């Protein structure tokens, strides 16, 4: 039996936090239910992975020139279908589609969804953690601008979420000043959590970054990493899963900092996309007492110029991110 007889669900969380916001309550409940259903579907497929022949490449490239995996396509179809059926989503922007897709909905109460349906694609074929990431925005007023304009003019996220498919399936939701962590019971299909807000631990000692790229980083970042490894006291430890959701989740639970900075050469704006990777993680971090920057400014203050815009991302425990900013010459 469960260790806690009074676990709470995402439904309870949204109900509790929208007691004075009846207008957005229904779309938020419908969208959260769609994310939960998508999580159940994906987790169930992933349990059989290679047996279903879904862990390989789709042999095509997406609009951003990246190789598409079969599970990228399955994630895209699964979540897009669920958001379409919810009739609470005005438009979906996805890593897997060039343009946002406008959906049938009740326009008065509908919201925008930006998503990375399958985060950490390179982990799929080796049975390592992967995830799905979502940010939910209010449409700008007036909401009659172009499909891209809706996302470029939206304010910072109203709600953010990620699913982490690993030893168990986690759902992390950030809304209205709180971040909560839920775990899927695969027998009942319920996501359950203890009903209390999650905060980044005060003291963290993990750094997560792909150190192989260090020669292409700017000098202040190289110096920072060298200081982390040789001089910082107390010393830090490296953990890198290679899926943003997995690395962020570890740091959220244990305390730490994740870095995907800009590089000389091909990745002058980093790798991660603002609207559906950096922004939701920044929002989840903020609601858990953490912080996210692009190295110079708070991620949540960046106004997007294009829907698939990339940004450097440094996110994690507030003390570690502040320390990073101070040592690289841009104190917060
Ligand atoms: P993806 O959306 O194609 O999976 O790319 C994003 C992923 C992140 O999850 C992860 O943090 C990063 O790419 C890893 O990149 P790298 O292999 O360059 O370290
Ligand atoms: Mg992705």
TrEMBL record:
<keyword id="KW-0378">Hydrolase</keyword>
<feature type="binding site">
    <location>
        <position position="210"/>
    </location>
    <ligand>
        <name>substrate</name>
    </ligand>
</feature>
<feature type="binding site">
    <location>
        <position position="116"/>
    </location>
    <ligand>
        <name>Mg(2+) 2</name>
    </ligand>
</feature>
<feature type="binding site">
    <location>
        <begin position="258"/>
        <end position="260"/>
    </location>
    <ligand>
        <name>substrate</name>
    </ligand>
</feature>
<dbReference type="InterPro" id="IPR033391">
    <property type="entry name" value="FBPase_N"/>
</dbReference>
<feature type="binding site">
    <location>
        <position position="240"/>
    </location>
    <ligand>
        <name>substrate</name>
    </ligand>
</feature>
<dbReference type="GO" id="GO:0030388">
    <property type="term" value="P:fructose 1,6-bisphosphate metabolic process"/>
</dbReference>
<feature type="binding site">
    <location>
        <position position="116"/>
    </location>
    <ligand>
        <name>Mg(2+) 1</name>
    </ligand>
</feature>
<dbReference type="InterPro" id="IPR020548">
    <property type="entry name" value="Fructose_bisphosphatase_AS"/>
</dbReference>
<keyword id="KW-0963">Cytoplasm</keyword>
<comment type="pathway">
    <text>Carbohydrate biosynthesis; Calvin cycle.</text>
</comment>
<dbReference type="InterPro" id="IPR000146">
    <property type="entry name" value="FBPase_class-1"/>
</dbReference>
<dbReference type="Pfam" id="PF18913">
    <property type="entry name" value="FBPase_C"/>
</dbReference>
<comment type="subunit">
    <text>Homotetramer.</text>
</comment>
<keyword id="KW-0119">Carbohydrate metabolism</keyword>
<protein>
    <recommendedName>
        <fullName>Fructose-1,6-bisphosphatase class 1</fullName>
        <ecNumber>3.1.3.11</ecNumber>
    </recommendedName>
</protein>
<dbReference type="GO" id="GO:0006002">
    <property type="term" value="P:fructose 6-phosphate metabolic process"/>
</dbReference>
<feature type="binding site">
    <location>
        <position position="95"/>
    </location>
    <ligand>
        <name>Mg(2+) 1</name>
    </ligand>
</feature>
<dbReference type="InterPro" id="IPR044015">
    <property type="entry name" value="FBPase_C_dom"/>
</dbReference>
<dbReference type="Pfam" id="PF00316">
    <property type="entry name" value="FBPase"/>
</dbReference>
<feature type="domain" description="Fructose-1-6-bisphosphatase class 1 C-terminal">
    <location>
        <begin position="201"/>
        <end position="325"/>
    </location>
</feature>
<dbReference type="GO" id="GO:0005986">
    <property type="term" value="P:sucrose biosynthetic process"/>
</dbReference>
<dbReference type="InterPro" id="IPR028343">
    <property type="entry name" value="FBPtase"/>
</dbReference>
<feature type="binding site">
    <location>
        <position position="118"/>
    </location>
    <ligand>
        <name>Mg(2+) 1</name>
    </ligand>
</feature>
<dbReference type="GO" id="GO:0006094">
    <property type="term" value="P:gluconeogenesis"/>
</dbReference>
<dbReference type="GO" id="GO:0042132">
    <property type="term" value="F:fructose 1,6-bisphosphate 1-phosphatase activity"/>
</dbReference>
<comment type="similarity">
    <text>Belongs to the FBPase class 1 family.</text>
</comment>
<dbReference type="GO" id="GO:0000287">
    <property type="term" value="F:magnesium ion binding"/>
</dbReference>
<keyword id="KW-0460">Magnesium</keyword>
<feature type="binding site">
    <location>
        <position position="119"/>
    </location>
    <ligand>
        <name>Mg(2+) 2</name>
    </ligand>
</feature>
<feature type="binding site">
    <location>
        <position position="277"/>
    </location>
    <ligand>
        <name>Mg(2+) 2</name>
    </ligand>
</feature>
<feature type="domain" description="Fructose-1-6-bisphosphatase class I N-terminal">
    <location>
        <begin position="12"/>
        <end position="192"/>
    </location>
</feature>
<feature type="binding site">
    <location>
        <position position="271"/>
    </location>
    <ligand>
        <name>substrate</name>
    </ligand>
</feature>
<dbReference type="GO" id="GO:0005737">
    <property type="term" value="C:cytoplasm"/>
</dbReference>
<feature type="binding site">
    <location>
        <begin position="119"/>
        <end position="122"/>
    </location>
    <ligand>
        <name>substrate</name>
    </ligand>
</feature>
<keyword id="KW-0479">Metal-binding</keyword>
<dbReference type="GO" id="GO:0006000">
    <property type="term" value="P:fructose metabolic process"/>
</dbReference>
